[in-house]
Amino acid sequence: MTAQTAPETLDLVADNIPTEPSSTAFAINAAQVPLEGGTDPAYGSVRWRTLINGNADAPKEFVLGIAEFEPHGTLEPHRHDPAEFYFGLEGSGVVTIDGTPHEIAPGVAIYVPGDAEHGTVAGPDGLRFAYGFAEPSFAGITYRFSA
Length: 147
Hints:
This protein is mainly beta and 147 residues long. The chain contains no helices and nine strands.
């Protein structure tokens, strides 16, 4: 039997990160984050939990949350400057982006380009999806709802 040595450890620095990470690592349980929304008809009936979010004093590298819809719930058509992604977790629905409908269901990822008009209608069993922005804070994203 021969002894094996551990491979050399290389100190590598990623060259595609524009800034140093802004905070220390953490974990958060979505079930412990209160729901927001569901009260402003301009948004529709969607509710959400913002899981990773920054502020002016402690920006993050991105925003991550979970959107939750009751059966046939809605997120009214709107736009915002940054691109966004959705990743289906539960239920089903239709996300319409610039007039083109896209089905969302568990395991389906949807890319919403920046400034694209998009809205969501949940199916008969409701809908939950993760959403995210490459922005330092959710508060800095301006939603512009269509008429």
